[in-house]
Amino acid sequence: MNSLGCTPRRGRGELGGVMNKSELIQKVAQRVNLTRKKAEEVVHLIFDAMSQALVRGDRVEIRGLGSFMVKNYAAYQGRNPRTGEAIQVKPKKLPFFKVGKELKKRVDKGKKEEPASSSSFKT
């Protein structure tokens, strides 16, 4: 892991790291002094709740981070890239994330992590 708590991966932007779910679970366990098993349950509970809300068509807003929503895409006529044949693409719903103002600023300024007791994410 690098200094940000992420696994280094080549070709992934300036910082060169990617935080996966396993690393997030480890971070949660360390920050709030939980066992890895309990931290895993917490992360899964949050992801499940967010997923269920999106399936219902609800919007999920997390102040300081951003909002998740479902975007509806109409059917359209596309082309098979191999053959050039016209194909009909069915309508679909896809999850979409809109970054929040505070996160944009933090990323732009390269602000480092804060101690657990002074988290900048508001509830």
Give a quick set of tags describing it.
123 residues; alpha+beta; HU Protein, Chain A; three-stranded antiparallel β-sheet; two-stranded antiparallel ribbon; 3 helices; 25% strand; elongated
Textual characterization of the structure:
This protein is elongated. A three-stranded antiparallel sheet has the order 3-4-7. By secondary structure, the chain is α+β, with helices and mostly antiparallel strands. The protein folds into two domains: 1-8 and 16-56, no CATH class; 59-104, Irregular (HU Protein, Chain A), CATH 4.10.520. 2% of the residues are buried. The chain contains three helices and seven strands, in the order E-E-H-H-E-E-E-E-E-H. Helix 1 packs across helix 2. It has helices at residues 21-31, 36-55, 101-109; strands at residues 7-8, 17-18, 60-62, 66-73, 76-79, 86-89, 92-99. It starts with 6 loop residues before the first strand and ends in a 14-residue tail after the last helix.
